[in-house]
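RETRY 2/3 - previous attempt timed out on the joint model. Re-submitting the same 428-residue input unchanged.
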Amino acid sequence: MFVPTTKIMVVDDFKTMRKIVINSLAGLGLTQVTESEDGADALPVIEKAAQDGAPFGLIISDWNMPKMQGIELLKKVRENALTKGTPFLMVTAEAEQKNILEAVKLGVSNYIVKPFSPQIFQEKLTSVYKKHNP
Amino acid sequence: MSLSDKSILLVTDDAAALATVTSAIQPLVKALVPVSSGSEGVQKLTNQVFDAIILRTKAPSLNDPKQIFQWTQLHKEHKATPWVVIGKDIEDEQIVITHHQVKFLAKADDAPGLVTILNGLFFSADEGKSGVPSVDVSFINPLVGAVVEVLKSMGQVEVKRGAPYVKKATDASASHGEISGIIAMNSDRFLGSMAICFQKGLILKVYENMLGTKAADIDNDVKDAVSEMTNIIFGNAKRDLNAAGHTIAMAIPSVVTGKGHEIRHSVNGHRFCIPFESPFGNVVVECVISMKKG
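RETRY 2/3 succeeded.
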């Protein structure tokens, strides 16, 4: 499982969902969290952290956001050589199969459909960790 | 408007259709009685009144489905029984198309389509008896399911659904609660919107359970929570509706607050309401849907 020092970026335009995710992470001992309201705000922070040699170890992003959607953020992260291997968990209310397939094609580590329980959240995080640390 | 009190007669000798219909319908209804011929169907009908008859017409050895139809037309307790005909080859037969309650399902393996037809059939019939305009329950059910699930899993509050109704014109625009999330529901076949109207006691309890902190009153954080819940309820319902063939587009919710605040829908029409009760207060889902012409 992710260690407590893991830097985590949480991206969601709704403060409520950011709080729920951050509370769930805290329950797992993960407190090194940076928040962003949108993919467009998160991307430069993620890229700069990688350039500075202190990359994020996990990105948890909403799908549907106004300026840059989560799927676009995922694409940009995977295109950048410095960030392409970052574990990426998509959190979405858009649970249609075509959406999921699109995210899988772009290399999402896993996805979680809102609403979710803390147990499901932990299971998904564990799955993401194992995928990147086989 | 529930399928759980309905008894269905299934007439088919097609093993694949029998398996599909049985797996799709049996868990939902009170009784599903399969028979393999028209004459066997008539035998069942002499002993029992069914709420609907499902008929698979492509089966080559089916012993004259007309026999069942003609028999039901001679017996008044069976005359109005709705039919669901799987396969369109019987559509041209005049005896069936003159029957007022026949729905057609093109493909035998379209289990979701069959459930949708049955829901629509019984919902329309039940609501018609009470004078309420009929609304396709296949459209409403995903919304109901999403409301119950989101409030339970995120808010840890179990709600009980009440009887749906149409708002009276005199109080049409006033909200049922102190805070409402509103979101457009548009597809290539219809335009509309949905409002989720919370009473204050309920939303404050849901907020506390979701985030682990109390809100003394409806503030910006509570508004954000209602907006996100509206988003999630919409997203879940949209997934199910689009899986059933709709093409509902993504949308961004808005939030309105204040006692008796006005709910402005994106189209004019009957305001169809589904109330839910909880120990902490009520929530009402209010929808207006207008089918596109042409």
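Confidence is low (pLDDT under 50) at residues 90-97, 124-134 of chain B. Closing ticket.
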